[in-house]
Amino acid sequence: MMTTNLTSKKPFELDWKRTLFWGSVCALSQVFICLVGLPSELNRRILIESTLSLGYLFILWIPLVFGYVVSKMVELEGVENPKPGAADLLSGALTGLLGSLGLVLLMLGIDNLDMRDPLINWNQKLFRLLTFENSISFGSLVWIPVGVGLGTIGASLHQMSGQIRKMSAYAMFGLFSFAVLEDVIDDLSEGFRLEWLSDMIYAKKGGMTVTSAIVLAIVLALLPLITRGKFKKTVDRYRSDAKPENQRRNSVVLFSTVAVLVIVLPWFLGGIINELLANVGLFLLLALGLNIVVGLAGLLDLGYVAFFAVGGYTTAVLTSPNSPWFSPETHFGISLLVVVVMATLAGLLIGAPVIRMRGDYLAIVTLGFGEIIRLLFLSDWLKPYLGGSQGITNVPAIDLGPWEVRGADPRSVFYMVLVFCVFAIYISWRLQGSRLGRAWMAIREDESVAEVMGINTVNSKLMAFVVGAVLAAFSGAVLAAKVGSVFPKSFEILVSIIILVVVIVGGMGSITGVMVGSLVLIGILGGPRQPGLLQEFQNFKLLIYGALLVFMMLKRPEGLVPTARRTRELHQEEYLQDAWLGDDESEDREEVGEQL
Amino acid sequence: MSETVKKRSKSRVSGVDRFLTFIRVLMATLIVLGVVAFISQQIWPNNPFAEWRNPDARGLTGDQFKGLVVSGLSQGAMYGLIALGYSMVYGVLGFINFAHGEVFMVGTMSGWITSEKLNDAGLWESNFILSLFLIIFVAITTSTVTAVITERIAYRPLRNSPRLIPLITSIGVSFFIQNAALGLFGPASKGYPRLPEWLAKQRSILTVEISGTKILVMVVAGLSMACLWYLVERTQTGRAMRAVAEDKEIASLMGINVNRTIVITFAVGGAMAGVGGILWGLLFRSVTHMTGFLPGIKAFTAAVVGGIGNMGGAMAGGIALGSAESIAPMVILEPLGVPGVSQLKDAIAFTVLVLVLLFKPAGLFGEKLSQEDRG
User: Fold this and answer.
1) What local confidence, expressed as pLDDT, does residue A1 receive?
2) Which of residues 108-147 of B touch A (CB under 8 A)?
């Protein structure tokens, strides 16, 4: 009976309630995004010359996504599902239409009502943007067809054949990355003396030229046709190569390619991109440390910034001549040894009281510790020792004999950070498979079981805190030398949260994931104070980080590059259910249960 | 072999314990020393013990001390109102709703918008009581709606996942709401309109000088607490909430709509935060997008101090924390010779959290949690 009910859908019978709901959600989100100020602020960044700016893109993706969502069907196992048909396209179009109507209402509102008092973006700038510097009717005439079209396209994504969907995805994401990476490509082509290349792709005033965008889109769309999955096959072959000597050779090849690229490329890059890479490296170092604490041991440390601050302040006190209380002006190398000692002490001091607490209490108490340390650095009490809100200035550059690492030369900072990152990656990689690493993962999965199995949970957790603290302190030390000063302001709670987002988006417990996460997030959006490639995002970074955190937790808690074990932990129920649906024999079920 | 292992592990564990005991003793000594120095200073200003660490300390006059207590109490009442939301959600779902501070901020923000509009219309001057009711109503509505929407979008899909997952999600929600408010209303600090003179003026009640605003704050907080008590202890809905907090599965077997009850829990917590937000607006008369962050964490501290899941405890914890925060810098830190003590007010709140968890992890009045959440 269920089956007949589900499949006997007429071609144009709409689920009105659902369409209306998602349509109004679409309208509300578009209006919300406009009023938050994303479009007007990001309008400066041009993606395709005189056609598309980042600001418009932020309005345009909404009907596309909601068109996709509204026509998505719940696929029930064991029942014949209704085929997607014209009705779905229609509901997608209606969703887009409702969204555009929201924008039209917003335009009318801005024109007739004055709400500037609470809403700062209720202004002419937004109005001009929405009406394309024309009249309201012109704006509505543009927005309505665009919204309907995008909604329909979103809805039709379900019905396209796999090939076409892949081609359009390649074209869209490729174009987007070309547009976003404009600075990098510009810089690289300059370094390789290929200026004509970037001149060809990009317009003078920023953004791609229309011709190059079209050509690139076609090339990118044809890419999957040409390769036809060869790339994926190579990757699979690389992964599944059973012979140990082949695998070894493959690893060596991969490793040396990456190493050569990382070492050679900075010479062809300009100052800004090198600075960016240095920032990415600093945050990667932090994220690798937090990855050990949160990802491996499962301790949600929200006061991680405290260790970062300890590293920075220790270096500043020991090396700077301006340190108010004690300034031995030692060499960076010696201060680094002290940094390790101080970070270990800080890790033990903060770790010991919280180690027995419930996971969520631990999070809040560490957050408290992070704030306490910042407030102490800021207070008059410690001002004679640590400089209070003025901080400690004049931290000297790192003197390495023939070379000098200083902030004005980002390339040198990058190499310095690189050394630390390689060290941190090596440490994390070796720890992961070690006795300690396995103990951490056991604690993460179930603490009481781990304890019963003979793991000294208290010591293992303390070790996680200490290792994480030392890595964060290294990052802080390099930051102090790079910036040349330390202020309490650089060590706000925000830093902890942003690193947490990096670790979670990349994939908790996965080294590759953390690397991808910091490259993408810090590189493109930027760190707490450091701008990324899209500098226009400066004011909206945290909004996007927050939304990203929620989205990842809801849709993909294991992160972009997950580890197999973590994925299984987080999707335990689905695995059990699949096993249960897939085979009814009880033996199989038991086996799966054991594996989990 | 096994014996050595046993010995080693035994000694290791006690190492951490010994350290914790040391911290406990140290903190207790510091507090006692501070208080004793303060008291001796009050009795006999020139005694050597009081001058030992801080010769400049003047101590407090009786009026100053009363003033500190009163402002501590009124702020504590507000923390208590916010803490109720943390406590109720923790009791029912077993996770810290980090975004609750932001729900409070939304209440304050909407109260600011309404009061500004009322002020422009002239109603704020002419009929303050009516406008007060209006802004409280608006704040309750917006806070409740915010809390319910976050529950629907962010927390409901995660109900059965490991307990850190919803906590991380709520951190994301918190940052999202904070920065959405920043984008919508801008970074400037927004001022509530002036309160009418008959309310704001100083009054003397039982020799205590107290401003009318603080009385109003305490009265409103007390009233809302009484309403909440009635709702939870005397109505069908309240019984459902208590049942769901005890055991969700059995509650649903008893015919309770668990989803609905959870939504109501969030809504009631949001309403309390909304009232708290208005009180904040009346007390401090300014609001920014960051207003919710510190009070949120402090209110959570208050909930832990009182014993999480325990509503009376949350209110008492709020008052205790508020008083500690306003008295401790002058009474404990100043006699110990710490300069610039008022800067350390926030640090004291966090220290209280750590101390409570070290000395009495279940809070002063005991936590009320279901078996599974306690683990």
Assistant:
1) 39
2) 113, 116
